[in-house]
Amino acid sequence: MTADSAPAAGGAPLFGRIAFIGIGLIGSSLARLVAEQGLAGSTVCTASDPQHLAEAAELGLTTETAPTIAQAVAGADLVIVATPVGAYEAVGAAMGPHLKPGAIVTDVGSVKQATVRDLGPFIPEGVHFVPGHPIAGTEHSGPRAGFADLFRDRWCILTPPPATDPAAVDKVAALWKAGGSMIEIMDPGHHDRVLAITSHLPHLIAYTIVGTATDLEEHLKQEVIKFSASGFRDFTRIAASDPVMWRDVFLNNREAVLEIIQRFTEDLTALQRAIRWGEGDKLEDLFTRTRTIRRAIIDARQA
Ligand SMILES: NC(=O)c1ccc[n+]([C@@H]2O[C@H](COP(=O)([O-])OP(=O)(O)OC[C@H]3O[C@@H](n4cnc5c(N)ncnc54)[C@H](O)[C@@H]3O)[C@@H](O)[C@H]2O)c1
Ligand SMILES: O=C(O)C(=O)C[C@]1(C(=O)O)C=C[C@@H](O)C=C1
What is the pLDDT of residues 211-222, one digit of tens each? Predict the structure, then answer.
């Protein structure tokens, strides 16, 4: 049940006590990182799913587990909200009155304007609010799916409100840097527009392609499964991502996602037209440009 919290390499732990609200893929990955590097004097987690809480205790992900959000956050120096974004209002209401003065509240949600909207009103005066989003994940969920190295060499975007104490931002950044992440500070609205194209639309497309294949007549469906060696298989990984998490992402980044779907639909229609009229040069042009993007992403990763 316990994860010994040795001091962080080269000095004292970054935080006295860290509380995790939600201990699934992302919460448990962070809890493993904190335990491995001794980034907190003590840790506690809570989760609405009793099975997750039992697994967290069994795996020794935190020093303690707590049955309620109120009990988990009491006395915590850092509170990390790691639930689906749709739960934020309820989580905020449950934790707000019990937060310690001077504590920092952060989160890992994939949408940032909704974080400010739903958690923000419950952060009392004297408590620091530093929303965050690690651009790292997998298609798996739950405490068993996490691993401490998930965030290595990945970006973590922080979206603190303009008047936030820079010392609080630095402390949250230090936690992510300990896990090997690179930090970018962004406005929440800008974050949501960028992620709508780089993460949310790709997931929507994957869900659509796999959904279309699932609706095919039985004999075709069997062949899809049999011959899905490469392209389609990659889409099925993304389309296996957590249904509740992704329902909440789309419902809470509605405007940016709808705008990007509109542009995507126009581009798809242009391609449809090029295929219909045999305009090979248009197809080749686009496919050449997209190849350049792939190379730029690979080069940026290697730099
Ligand atoms: N999965 C990814 O690839 C990924 C990547 C980056 C960020 N995120 C974000 O991280 C957050 C968590 O995602 P995850 O993949 O770890 O999900 P998960 O399903 O693995 O875990 C979610 C946890 O939250 C708990 N929870 C749900 N509602 C709750 C409530 N009302 N009160 C208390 N606990 C509650 C669950 O019991 C569970 O322990 C989401 O906001 C998601 O957008 C996910
Ligand atoms: O690699 C994956 O499985 C992911 O989908 C990770 C991914 C992404 O789209 O890049 C998914 C959601 C997040 O909020 C951040 C990261």
Answer: 988 888 777 778
pLDDT, residue 10, reads 47
Q: How close is the Cα of 101 to the center of ligand 2, in Å? A: 33
What DSSP state is assigned to residue 241?
S
Please tell me whether residue 185 adopts helix, strand or coil conformation. Answer: strand
Q: Which CATH homologous superfamily contains domain 15-186?
A: NAD(P)-binding Rossmann-like Domain (3.40.50.720)
Q: Which of 135, 147, 248 to mutate to test the pocket of ligand 2 (most atoms within 8 A of CB)?
A: 135
Cα torsion for 162, 164, 165, 170, to the nearest 10°?
-90
Closest-CA residue to 154 (of 138, 170, 165): 138
212 φ/ψ angles, rounded to the nearest 5 degrees: -60, -45
Least confident of 187-191, 202-206, 219-223, 279-283: 219-223
Mean pLDDT, to the nearest integer, of 29-36?
Answer: 98
Q: Which amino acid residue places its CA nearest to atom 9 of ligand 2?
A: 199
Question: By alpha-carbon position, which residue is closest to atom 3 of ligand 1?
Answer: 137
User: 276 C-alpha vs ligand 1 centroid, how far in Å?
Assistant: 44
Neighbours of 186 (CB within 10 A): 16
Rounded mean pLDDT, 252-261: 98
CATH H-level superfamily of 191-302: 6-phosphogluconate dehydrogenase C-terminal like domain (1.10.3660.10)
**Amino acid at site 295:** R
Atom 5 of ligand 1: nearest residue by CA position: 137
Positive/negative CA dihedral, 73, 77, 80, 86: positive
